[in-house]
Amino acid sequence: MTLQGKVALVTGGSRGIGQQVCLRLAAMGAMVGINYVSNEAAAKQTLALIEQTGGKGFFAPFDVADSERAQERIREITDAHESVDILVNNAGITRDGLMARMKDAEWDAVLDTNLKGAYICSKAVMKGMMKKRWGRIINMTSVVGFLGNAGQVNYASAKAGLVGLTKSMARELASRSITVNCVAPGYIVTDMTSNLSAEIREALIKQIPLGTLGQPQDVAAAVAFLASPESGYMTGQTLHVNGGMYMGN
Ligand SMILES: NC(=O)c1ccc[n+]([C@@H]2O[C@H](COP(=O)([O-])OP(=O)(O)OC[C@H]3O[C@@H](n4cnc5c(N)ncnc54)[C@H](OP(=O)(O)O)[C@@H]3O)[C@@H](O)[C@H]2O)c1
C-alpha cells in the first residue's frame, strides 16, 4: 500500500487503460479521482470495482480540453482533498484518416484532447505539488508517437508532442521532487482498438515479438511503478509497453 494518503487524478479513467490505472492506484491505497467526459455508466462501474476491493475513489467529470472548466474542477478537487499528488494524463481520442483528406477539425480535436488536455491538467495540479514538494505526473503517449503511422498524423503528432512536454516539465519541476514521465503503450485491447479488422490485427501481431496485443493491466502496471515512491529517481523518461514492437527510446 505504497500510495496510502495520496490523491490521484486519472483522466479518461472510466474505460480501457484508464480504468485499470484507477483500480491499480486504488489498490495501492490512493484515493482516486475518476475523470471522464461523457460515459457516466462506465465511470460508475470503475468506482464500483474500486469499492468492491476496499479502495476509495470519486467522480471528476470534465472535458480535459476545456481549460476553464478543467481548472475549476481541479480547484474543487484540491480544495476537497488538499492536493492532487498523482496526475495521470490518460484521456485520449483518435480521428483517423489520411492527411490529404484530414479536416482541420479532426486535427484540432485530437491535439486538443491528447496534448493540450495534458498541458491544462498538469498546469492546474502543479502549484499544489510544488507546495508539497512531491508529485508524480504520468503522460500516456503511444508507440505511434515514436514510429509514426499512416492515417494518424494528428494522433502521432499529439503523442510525440507529449514526450517533449514531459521532458520539459521534468526539467522545470525536478527541484521540487516532482517527477514527470511517459508510458507508451503499443496496441492494447480496449474500445479504441476494437474496430481493427481481423486482417489488420493479424498484420499487427506479426510485428509484435511477444505475439499478442497487450491488455490494459499491462499498461497500468507501468503507471503504478511511475506513480510509486520507488520511481523517485526517474524523470523525463518513457516506459514502453508494447510486446517488443518498438525497442528504441
Ligand atoms: N488502446 C491502445 O492501443 C492505446 C495504445 C497507445 C496509447 N493509448 C492511449 O492510452 C489512453 C487510453 O486509451 P484507451 O484505449 O483506454 O481509450 P478508450 O478505451 O477509448 O477510453 C478513452 C477514455 O478517455 C476519456 N476521454 C476522451 N476524451 C476526453 C476528454 N476530452 N476529456 C476527458 N476524458 C476524455 C473517455 O471518457 P468517456 O468514457 O467519458 O468517453 C475514456 O475514459 C489514450 O491516451 C490513448 O491514446 C492507447
Search tags:
globular, 7-stranded parallel β-sheet, 8 helices, binds NADP nicotinamide-adenine-dinucleotide phosphate, Rossmann fold, 46% helix, 249 residues, alpha/beta
Tell me about this structure.
With 249 residues, the chain is α/β, with parallel strands linked by helices. It has one domain: Rossmann fold. The protein has helices spanning 16-27, 40-52, 67-81, 104-132, 144-147, 153-173, 198-206, 216-227, and strands at 7-10, 31-36, 56-61, 86-89, 135-140, 178-185, 238-241. It has a seven-stranded parallel beta sheet with strand order 3-2-1-4-5-6-7, sandwiched between helices. Helix 2 (40-52) links the parallel strand 2 and strand 3 (56-61). Helix 1 crosses helix 8 (216-227) and helix 3 runs parallel beside helix 4 (104-132). The longest helix is centred in the middle third of the chain and has 29 residues, at 104-132. It starts with 6 loop residues before the first strand and ends in an 8-residue tail after the last strand. The mean pLDDT is 97. Bound molecules: NADP nicotinamide-adenine-dinucleotide phosphate. NADP nicotinamide-adenine-dinucleotide phosphate binds at residues 11-12, 14-18, 35-39, 42, 63-65, 90-93, 113-114, 140, 142, 185, 187-188, 190-193. NADP nicotinamide-adenine-dinucleotide phosphate (NAP) is lined by residues 11-12, 14-18, 35-39, 42, 63-65, 90-93, 113-114, 140, 142, 185, 187-188, 190-193.
